[in-house]
From TrEMBL:
Origin species: Tomitella fengzijianii
Domain ABC transmembrane type-2 positions: 28-260
GO cellular component terms attached to this protein's record: ATP-binding cassette (ABC) transporter complex
Presence of keyword Lipid biosynthesis: no
Entry-linked PANTHER family: NODULATION PROTEIN J (PTHR43229:SF2)
Sections of the chain in a coiled coil: none
Name of protein: Transport permease protein
Length: 263
């Protein structure tokens, strides 16, 4: 007799395959999700880079600013794809596909788990593309092997946290249009952090918010590890925020999935 855990893995793999096929089938949407952080990268490097780089502590140029903003661009890549997860989950609810899955003999957790795993795969591909383009533009990270391992682990933890958050937002939304707008603050929060300018240059109230919101320790940790430096306490805060958000949103999404009827 097949155990429930084995069935859960099997059904999650099936749902992952379904969602990956959707990603391949809707090429224009997938390309747009990957292109969005690349547009931000080109904009900040070639339009603002020279001026913003000169304003960094110790001065600098466009190349120094590219090194400075790369962690924020990687974070924006995660948020861009997480936003799409909320929309696709709500769209499945709206079209009745979720209701159809509920009538089938599959593990209840597989529908959401497959969606989250597909988002992780797409985010990893997008991160690789963004890093490759950054290297072409002149980005030369000095991180150690251990630093790169930590960077990959933190990006994975952040992807899981934000994806579970947007899964819950998608389930809670009354329709797909609302689900596409509700998570938008996630796209703007990296701009109110240490991602694009040092927090010391911000007005007092904005600086206080920037220094205590979750994206700042995440970006500071990525910047330290990618430059070969030690992250210190920021790493603990970064992983702590990711674990807290992932656990809370997983429980929230599971509760919504078991109680909320499809639209």
């Amino acid at each position: 007799m097949t155990s429930p855990i084995t069935l859960g893995f099997r059904d999650s793999r099936t749902m992952l395959r379904r969602n990956l096929l959707q990603i391949v089938r809707y090429k224009s949407l997938t390309l747009m999700l990957i292109a969005q952080p690349l547009i931000f990268l080109a904009l900040f490097v070639y339009v603002f880079g020279a001026t913003m780089g000169a304003g960094l502590p110790g001065g600098g140029g466009r190349g120094d600013y590219l090194d400075f903003i790369m962690p924020a661009i990687l974070v924006l890549t995660v948020t861009s794809i997480a936003l799409n997860t909320a929309y696709t989950i709500a769209l499945d609810m709206e079209k009745g596909i979720i209701d159809r899955f509920r009538t089938m003999a599959i593990a209840r957790s597989a529908v959401l788990t497959g969606r989250v795993l597909a988002a992780v795969v797409l985010t990893a591909v997008a991160q690789a593309v963004v890093l490759a383009v950054a290297l072409v533009l002149g980005y030369r990270p000095a991180g150690t092997a251990l630093g790169w391992l930590g960077t990959a682990g933190l990006l994975l933890a952040m992807t899981l946290a934000l994806t579970w958050l947007t899964v819950a937002l998608g389930l809670a939304a009354p329709n797909a249009e609302t689900a596409s707008n509700t998570p938008m603050p996630l796209l703007f929060l990296p701009f109110l952090s240490s991602g694009f300018v040092p927090t010391e240059s911000m007005p007092a109230a904005v600086r206080w918010f920037a220094e205590y919101q979750p994206f700042t320790p995440i970006i500071n940790t990525l910047r330290a590890w990618l430059s070969g430096a030690a992250a210190g306490a920021d790493a603990w805060w970064a992983f702590g925020w990711c674990a807290l958000i992932a656990a809370a949103c997983f429980l929230w999404a599971r509760r919504l999935y078991s109680r909320v009827r499809a639209h």
